[in-house]
Amino acid sequence: MREIDLHIHTTESDGTCTPAEVVRLAAQHGLRAVAITDHDTAAGYPAAAAAGERLGVEVVPGIEISTELRGPVHILGYYIDPQSPALAPVLDRVIRDRDERNRRIAARMAADGLPVDYDEMRRRFGAAIGRPHFAELLVELGLARDVKDAFDRYVEKGRPYYERRRFLSLEQAIGCIRDSGGLPVLAHPFQYRLDESGLRALIETAKGFGLAGMECRYSGYDEAQTAYLLALAEEYGLFPTGGSDFHGAVKPSIALGSGTGGLAVPYAWLEGMKEYCRRSG
Ligand code: AMP
Ligand code: FE
Ligand code: FE
Ligand code: ZN
């Protein structure tokens, strides 16, 4: 059943649809519920929730936080309170760290003679600017075919305009989501290129920090992969979630709700999350 999509990016981070547009699209696709999970910000929630009220789509507040534990690990947070003193200052710091890194990228580009003005980018793209926005500019300047090409040649690690940024630790990300009343979930477990023992070690570590769920349906994951993740989730007492990781026009192969075609996430999974909320008080 294609009923919900719990992994969506908007113009508040690196997606191309506004929060209200996402909800309109969800209504058109007949989705019952969506969660907006922008990188490092929940700023899209109020507009999405208002649109959801009008259109009869349930909107879940969410976020996606990039962390580092040996390699990158992304943690989704649902039912967070972004105003919580446990979360707001942490997100402020992440955005400041992003900003500081972004200014270094912009300065490098400007030093090469590219017409890149970071304050102008801030006006155009908002606060949660990332490498995808620089990639978009490089495409507009005719230096890359598309965002992926721009990543491969300019902003990926090892490329001329790559600059490191500081990440929260896995423990900090899971902790601040929990402390703000939210549910921490391990995003897209196959994206980290871990073998089975590596993935189990990651899950066990994250569980130790308070992980509550795991993304078991995701764009491009087939039925066998989903079954494998569902068995792991069950074994570790994690509730399953699912979503497309929709980004709009910058990732045109991923559709809201249906992902690369075969994605289908049942509403019952959202009920499972609410049940977990009730039990953990
Ligand atoms: P940042 O957090 O600003 O360093 O940017 C990382 C974001 O860029 C990720 O969350 C992805 O959405 C996107 N991204 C990373 N690698 C690629 C790639 N090769 N092609 C397109 N988008 C990418
Ligand atoms: Fe993204
Ligand atoms: Fe992610
Ligand atoms: Zn995502």
Bound compounds, each kind once, are: adenosine monophosphate, fe (iii) ion, zinc ion
Largest sheet: 8 strands, mixed
Count the strands? 8
Structural class: alpha/beta
Unreliably modeled segments: none
Tell me the fraction of residues in β-strands, as a range.
15-25%
Mean pLDDT: 96
Give me the Rg, rounded. 18 Å
Could you give the distance between the termini? 29 Å
Describe the protein in words.
Helix 1 packs parallel to helix 2 and helix 5 packs across helix 6. 44% of the residues lie in helices and 16% in strands. It has 10 helices and 8 strands. The chain is globular. The protein is of the alpha/beta class. The longest helix is centred in the middle third of the chain and has 24 residues. Strands 1, 2, 3, 4, 5, 6, 7 and 8 form an 8-stranded mixed beta sheet that branches. The protein binds adenosine monophosphate, fe (iii) ion (FE) (2 copies) and zinc ion.
